[in-house]
Amino acid sequence: MLLPQDKYLEAGLHIGTRFKTIDMKPFIFKRRDDGLFILDLRKIDERIRIAAKILSKYKPGEVLVVASRLYSANAAGKFSHLTGVDIIKGRFIPGTMTNIKLPLFKEPKIMLVCDPKGEAEAVREASRMGIPIIALCDTDNNTGFIDWVVPTNNKGRKALALVFYLLTRELLMGQGKISGYDQFDYKLEYFERFEDERTEEIAKTIEAEEAKPAETDLLPEEKKEKKEEKKEEKKEE
After folding, report:
1. CA-to-CA separations, 120 to 97, 143, 187, in angstroms, rounded
2. Closest to 210 measured CA to CA, from 105, 77, 71
3. Residue 62, C-beta contacts closer than 8 angstroms, at least 6 positions apart
4. Which of 10, 27, 207, 224 has its CB 3.0 to 4.6 Å from that of 151, i.e. a possible disulfide?
5. Rounded to an integer, what is the distance from CA 141 to the centroid of its chain?
6. Backbone phi, psi, residue 18, to 5°
7. pTM of the full structure
8. How far apart are CA 200 and CA 206, in angstroms?
9. Residue 143 in contact with residue 149, Cβ under 8 Å?
10. What CA–CA distance (Å, rounded) separates 165 from 76?
11. Which residues share a beta bridge with 151?
12. Hey, what domains does the chain have and what are their CATH numbers?
């Protein structure tokens, strides 16, 4: 494997959601007792490796990364900086790849999206233009129009940092910019770290909110328990 298995486990690359799509079924290893679906680590490793090989066949300027969320934009931004590939952070403007009159018009030869759901417009435009698409896909993603699926937790800060750490290292190897892993001077923390304090504080706030399970993410017995808690709170009031 590209890294020892415990590194993948620590970053939570294998931790999916409580939902699964038919498209992602081949990449799911099991369902945990708490309802979370678990992705197959070997398939994650294999597909990251191949994704990097595919990208290494293109010039950096021919590759476009679309990263709409804070965590993916941060890690993908480091990937872009080190490899020279193009990147769109935040909202994808409709027409970016189809309207030549737009100031930010782009003509990539291959595209990498960090979440096919959040970056659906980019996926639609790329498929319309015949641009191959690589996508980081969680258990709840549909993979229509995706040419190469990289199964992974595509929401977690540590997971995304590790994915782009590996993609950067492997792509630089493929490009011949480094000849061995010992020449890759960047640590995983670099891909996880935010460069300014304000963004770091925003990230911590997001992490705290995401740690609270939403009603839709709860299992039936958990929903029942939550309702009982609310009843008790009302009685006390």
Report:
1. 13, 11, 31
2. 71
3. 108, 109, 110
4. 27
5. 11
6. -85, 5
7. 0.84
8. 10
9. yes
10. 9
11. 137
12. 5-193 (3.40.50.10490), 196-237 (no CATH)
Asked if residue 87 has pLDDT above 90, the reply is yes
Nearest to 69 by CA among 40, 49, 54, 89: 89
Q: What is the token pair recorded at 3?
A: 């890294």
Cα gap 178→183, rounded to integer Å: 6
DSSP annotation string for the chain? --S-HHHHHHHTTTB--S---TTTGGGEEEE-TTS-EEE-HHHHHHHHHHHHHHHTTS-GGGEEEEE-SHHHHHHHHHHHHHH--EEEESSPPTTTTT-TTSTT----SEEEES-TTTTHHHHHHHHHTT--EEEEE-TT---TT-SEEEES--S-HHHHHHHHHHHHHHHHHHTTS-SSGGG----HHHHH--SSHHHHHHHHHHHHHHTSPPGGGS-HHHHHHHHHHHHHHHHH-
Q: Is 117 exposed, middle or buried (0-12, 13-18, 19+ CB in 10 A)?
A: middle
**What confidence score (pLDDT) does residue 6 get?**
94
Tokens of 99: 């309207």
